[in-house]
């Protein structure tokens, strides 16, 4: 039983693989607890919207606030009926369990996109989700602490996925975001910790690149220049020089860990890391970065990347060189 109303009980059933293709319907009987009078039911076997690996059905036209005992069996197309499962449930809504699989799918310095799935037990018809944001810590401690209004996100009951963008956040800050389902009652929350990255910054160290085939290399202005948000220069952690190919066939050759998908989302995939240094390595920044062994007559482009970090959230600022042909 995953959902209850005053007049219906909703079931999800898992069927063995060998009988799934033959499954036609669910059959059974039910009675009010303490009564010897029972009724039969049949329900078409249909995959659940929320859990495609399960089958969902309901028994309706029940009486309010009663406890019912059910005996349920799976019926196959050859009319064979399997073993019976017994379950009891009441026609009374209760508070929902927490949303499932809550995660952050993307973030900016001032917002995050949150996804979650339907609760394992909603115990009623979900009408909305309550989203509460609590500020935990921020890099600029003098700006602490903002109070966020509780947000009510209207919801269609039994959707496979729910998405919400939480805005108005501050860069380089930590938040605890709770999400709870609301039927007639407020449900148990699922809580996720979120860090926002530093805001866009000026490139603080300029690239010093030497190409064996070119006397000089021109760099373009930043594609995403800094905004009016504060710049947190002390959070700059490292610099990278990336080699991009016009055919996009460069293969990433560095173990960048969680930084890799952030770089790919900003710059694109299929780059080669030529140089990667932490900001504290002063000797490395004094030496020119030599780029050689390029394929002749092939067009390339370089990306100079500045990486800032607040906890597990990365900020990426970069400039691109002009395209050039290797000689």
Description:
This protein is mainly beta and 327 residues long. It has 3 domains: 3-90, Immunoglobulin-like, CATH 2.60.40.10; 100-196, Sandwich (Immunoglobulin-like); 209-326, Immunoglobulin-like. Helices cover 6% and strands 46% of the residues. It contains 3 helices and 22 strands. The strands form 6 sheets. Strands 17, 18, 20, 21 and 22 form a 5-stranded antiparallel beta sheet that branches. A 4-stranded antiparallel beta sheet has the order 1-2-6-5, with no helix packed on it. It is elongated, with a radius of gyration of 29 Å.
Strand and helix order: EEHEEEEEEEEEEEEEEEHEHEEEE
Tell me the structural class: mainly beta
Number of E-type strands: 22
Q: Determine the CATH topology of the largest domain.
A: Immunoglobulin-like
* Biggest pleated sheet: 5 strands, antiparallel
Q: Examine the secondary-structure arrangement and name the CATH architecture of the largest domain.
A: Sandwich
Number of helical segments? 3
Q: Average pLDDT, to the nearest integer?
A: 90
Q: How much strand content do the residues show?
A: over 45%
CATH class of the largest domain: Mainly Beta
The global form is: elongated
Number of domain modules: 3
Please give the alpha-carbon distance between the first and last residues.
Answer: 70 Å
Q: Unreliable segments (pLDDT under 50, ≥5 consecutive)?
A: none
Q: Using only CA atoms, what is the Rg? A: 29 Å
- The helix content is under 10%
Domain Fibronectin type-III: 98-199
InterPro entries: FN3_dom, FN3_sf, Ig-like_fold
Protein name: Fibronectin type-III domain-containing protein
Organism: Homalodisca liturata
């Amino acid at each position: 039983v995953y959902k209850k109303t005053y007049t219906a009980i909703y079931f999800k059933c898992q069927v063995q693989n060998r009988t799934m293709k033959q499954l036609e319907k669910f059959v059974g009987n039910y009675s009010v607890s303490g009564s010897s009078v029972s009724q039969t039911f049949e329900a078409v076997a249909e995959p659940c919207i929320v859990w495609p690996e399960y089958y969902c059905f309901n028994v309706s036209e029940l009486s309010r606030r009663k406890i019912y005992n059910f005996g349920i069996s799976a019926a196959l197309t050859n009319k064979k009926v399997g073993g019976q499962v017994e379950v009891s449930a009441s026609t009374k809504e209760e508070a929902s369990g927490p949303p499932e699989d809550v995660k952050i799918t993307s973030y900016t310095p001032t917002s995050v996109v949150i996804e979650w799935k339907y609760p394992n037990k909603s115990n009623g018809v979900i009408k909305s989700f309550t989203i509460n944001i609590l500020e935990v810590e921020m890099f600029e401690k003098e700006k602490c602490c903002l109070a966020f209004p509780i947000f009510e996100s209207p919801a269609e009951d039994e959707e496979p996925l729910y998405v919400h963008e939480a805005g108005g956040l501050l860069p380089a800050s930590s938040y605890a975001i709770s999400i709870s389902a609301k039927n007639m009652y407020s449900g148990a929350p699922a809580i996720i910790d979120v860090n926002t990255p530093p805001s866009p910054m000026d490139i603080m160290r300029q690239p010093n690149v030497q190409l064996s085939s070119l006397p000089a290399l021109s760099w373009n202005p930043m594609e995403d220049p800094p905004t009016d948000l504060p710049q947190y220069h002390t959070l700059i952690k490292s610099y990278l020089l990336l080699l991009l190919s016009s055919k996009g066939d460069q293969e990433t050759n560095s173990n960048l860990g969680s930084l890799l998908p952030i770089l790919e989302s900003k710059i694109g995939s299929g780059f080669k890391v030529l140089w990667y240094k932490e900001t504290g390595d002063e000797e490395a920044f004094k030496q020119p970065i030599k780029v050689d062994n390029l394929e002749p007559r092939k067009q390339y482009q370089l990306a100079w990347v500045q990486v800032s970090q607040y906890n597990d959230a990365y900020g990426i600022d970069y400039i691109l060189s002009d395209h050039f042909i290797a000689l």
